[in-house]
């Protein structure tokens, strides 16, 4: 009980919200009468494929963003590349400032339609939170701590790995969580360029005026975003060194 009280509120409260929304949706679903199109779209075999495609799109884009943004953020905090930080951040900011649908459509002229184009568009759209949080997290590390580690003989690389990055982990992972939630929501738009996602339910519901399908798609996207955000919070909590908040 004491251990539960020591946990941050969102760690245990968010699953309650997920459970309430999920159970509420199940009761609502069972009380509805669906058309043939709605039944076909919400049939578990089709729905499972749609959900897995949405998750795959989100995960692939997230992995690429993390692989690109974190090393880039680390490089931009090093003295030799600090002058390039404003340029890199402003370029990343352009990606997020642009309308997501417009960004995805623009990439279709270059790469065509489908999964690959959707991933590229999502990566460009979501790189800013991780890049910015990596830079901020490393900047917030006390310079005296860094100097002390160098003073005891640690190289710059070992200081980065053993001192700076562990202390910056909470801020960096918070950026990853933010990017994940952005990607889950934005991935719905990939349906406009031929990539399967939960956005298919939403666009079909709008196009054919099937409000129940539209509501189902919106709720499922919201639930997926909450679940991924909660899992990200657990990873953040587990990866944060003791004594670092």
What features would you highlight for this structure?
single chain, 245 residues, mainly alpha, 11 helices, flat
What is the string of helix and strand elements?
A: HHHHHHHHHHH
Q: What gap, in angstroms, lies between the N and C termini? A: 21 Å
Residues in β-strands, percent: under 5%
Mean pLDDT: 88
Count of DSSP-assigned helices = 11
Low-confidence stretches: none
Helical content stands at over 70%
For the sheet with most strands, the description reads: none
What is the element layout, followed by pairings?
Layout: H1 2-6, H2 9-31, H3 36-42, H4 44-76, H5 85-97, H6 100-111, H7 115-139, H8 143-151, H9 156-186, H10 199-207, H11 211-239
Characterize the structure shown:
By secondary structure, this protein is mostly helical. The protein has 11 helices and no strands. The longest helix has about 35 residues, at about 45-75. It is flat, with a radius of gyration of 21 Å. The mean pLDDT is about 90.
Brief digest:
With 245 residues, the protein is mainly alpha-helical. Helices cover 80% and strands 0% of the residues.
